[in-house]
Write a structure and sequence with these properties.
By secondary structure, this protein is of the alpha+beta class. It has a single domain, classed as SH3 type barrels (Roll), CATH 2.30.30. It contains one helix and five strands; from the N terminus they run βββββα. It has a five-stranded antiparallel sheet with strand order 3-2-1-4-5. It is elongated and about 45 Å long. The two termini are about 20 Å apart. The model has no long low-confidence stretch (mean pLDDT about 95).
């Protein structure tokens, strides 16, 4: 199973004629392609899947995601 993960754009740049960004995932920095959201600016949040930023998120959506993810982890596979 693959998940999309929210992150904060900390820097945009061009690489091989593609708009890219460094994304901060809570202290882990990775690059992602911004081809699907070319109007994203530094400081904004995006949902990233398989190295592609797919949509813009606001801070409330990011907080909700993290809260729900913590609930999943706390459940620890309980049925």
């Amino acid at each position: 199973m693959c998940l999309a993960v929210p992150g904060k754009v900390i820097r945009t740049f061009e690489e091989n004629n593609l708009l890219m960004a460094e994304i901060d995932y809570g202290g882990v920095i990775k690059s992602a392609c911004l081809a699907y959201v070319p109007d994203i600016r530094e400081g904004e949040y995006v949902m990233v899947h398989a190295g592609f930023a797919l949509q813009r998120l606001d801070e409330e959506e990011v907080r909700t995601f993290h809260q729900l993810w913590q609930e999943v982890l706390a459940a620890g596979g309980k049925k």
